[in-house]
Design goal:
Layout lengths: L2 E12 L2 E12 L3 E5 L6 H7 L10 E9 L2 E2 L7 H7 E4 L10 H11 L5 H14 L3 H4 L12 H13 L5 E5 L7 H14 L4 E5 L3 H7 L2 E6 L2 E7 H6 L4 H7 L5
Parallel strand pairs: 3-8, 3-9, 6-7, 7-8
Antiparallel strand pairs: 1-2, 1-4, 4-5, 9-10
Helix pairs in contact: 3-4, 3-6, 4-6, 6-7
Bound molecules: adenosine-5'-triphosphate and magnesium ion (MG).
Length: 251
Amino acid sequence: MSNAFEIKNLNIYYNGLHAVKNVSIDIPHTLITAIIGASGCGKSSFLRAMNRMNDLIPNSRRTGEILFHGVDIHQPMMSEVTLRRRIGMVFQKPNPFPFSIFDNVAYGLRIQGMRDKATLDQRVEESLRRAALWPEVKDRLKQSAFALSGGQQQRLCIARTLAVDPEVLLLDEPCASLDPTGTARIEELLQKLEKEITIIIVTHNMQQAKRLSDTVGFFHLGELVEFGRTEEMFEHPRIQLTRDYIMGHFG
Ligand SMILES: Nc1ncnc2c1ncn2[C@@H]1O[C@H](COP(=O)(O)OP(=O)(O)OP(=O)(O)O)[C@@H](O)[C@H]1O
Ligand SMILES: [Mg+2]
């Protein structure tokens, strides 16, 4: 099993607050890794570190190393634009741009300089199909993205990210604002994508982590308490704290 990420002694601070504490973890390539833990334990900070989004936060500081396919993501040669294209991110609240459905998905492609209409059309359709949204929007591509339901908007955001062909998809509680049907659609879609790309998903939903992920990391107060194969971790957690969290005793 090869690794997409090798993270060594990662620390993240906000002013005096030590949010992620000496985390070392290998994230496997083309599998789904779930990150679980109580509110405030550093899950989002950890996830944002993966494509250097955390560097954009004023007063945040990082130490430690993040290797992406063996290459240090902080080395001066690594462009942030390229890194964020290769490692896309989707957030808790769907955040479509105030454009049409088509223009949302075409956004990243146009930034890359793609102008040819036929190629753009084709790439937009392909991305919407991969995000399992095409049948619902194919006749209304010119409509505002805000006319979509929450679940559709979230799939649109996934399509927008997929359009530029990322190798990794980071998802921070992507189903938090969705109903069970919307959630099921996203889970189904992630399971299909898993064959091609590496997925890291933060979730508060234990059932979702169990259903969806291959490996799971449990964070507590900024530390990575336990990391392992999902089945093993849910059935035989090695550490009492993990067991308590999984059983719903706190968080
Ligand atoms: N931009 C920021 N500035 C200052 N402190 C921050 C910032 N972002 C996060 N923190 C602090 O870092 C700690 C970890 O926050 P983080 O958002 O990573 O946790 P989380 O596990 O994602 O929580 P939740 O489940 O509520 O989303 C918290 O104490 C939080 O208050
Ligand atoms: Mg969070």
